[in-house]
Amino acid sequence: MVPLRLTVLLIAALLGGCAVNSTPLEPYDPYEEQNRKVFGFNQNLDRYVLSPVASAYATVTPGFFRRGVDNFFNNARYPKVILNDLLQGKMGHAAKDTGRFLVNTTVGILGLWDPASRIGLPARNEDFGQTLAVWGANSGPYLELPALGPSYTRELSDYPVAAATNVLTYTLEFQVLAPLTALYYINKRAMLEKAVQIRDQAAIDPYLFTRSAYMQYRENLIYDGNPPQTDLYDESLFEDE
Q1: pTM of this structure
Q2: Nearest to residue 18, comparing CAs of 122, 132, 135?
Q3: pLDDT digits (tens, 9 = 90+) for 156-187
Q4: Within a 13 Å sphere around the CA of 116, how many CA atoms are in the beta-carbon half?
Q5: Cys-Cys with 155: which of 13, 68, 129, 200 at CB 3.0–4.6 Å?
Q6: For the chain, how many structural domains are there in total?
């Protein structure tokens, strides 16, 4: 859903041995006209549907309940992180992330709690788009997806991988999985309300703001929080004329 992905990367923008092919910060957006139309649709979907539902949900649920729901779904999806650790050759991270998943699934009661973070096993974010970047694939054009938000063509590959590595895919029938998935997005949207407000207040052009934030967010993920400075800044901007 739009707010789920957008808000994390928007906050990042506000706070500002493999050959990695990174995400370009110079926008490659050949479909900008179509992307802006989809962006407008997504904004309206959030404004008139998801946001009101999430607000009502937040009114009737306590904070600890919402955190527990978020923890549960994040834990069920965590095998994806472990798989992409292995595919990227990050064996040390793979071992730690496996430990995190096992601790939270057992001691944390199916992930409702997060004891792993307290013992030095924090959550990490790895996906198949990052793996393809490490393998040398370029990002491809920027895309705004209906109901899903910003992406690159490279990142589209993560959707089937995420579904295939989600524990709930194999343990729940569709009749149960579908409403639980809706609960996940509504819960996440409720938790991110303040960040969405920051985006709306800060951006003169929300589309450009979102696109720039997404590019920086992906670059940061690919380089594990340490992107090359030459990729982030154009030094010529600081040279005297």
Answers
A1: 0.82
A2: 135
A3: 999 999 999 999 999 989 889 899 989 999 99
A4: 25
A5: 129
A6: 1
CA distance 68 to 65: 5
pLDDT at 204: 80
Q: Which range of residues forms the domain containing residue 203?
A: 2-67+120-227
| 142 part of a folded domain | yes
Angle (nearest 5°) at CA 33 between 32 and 37: 110
pLDDT of residue 239: 46
Is 234 a residue whose pLDDT tops 60?
no
Residue 72 resides in a domain = no
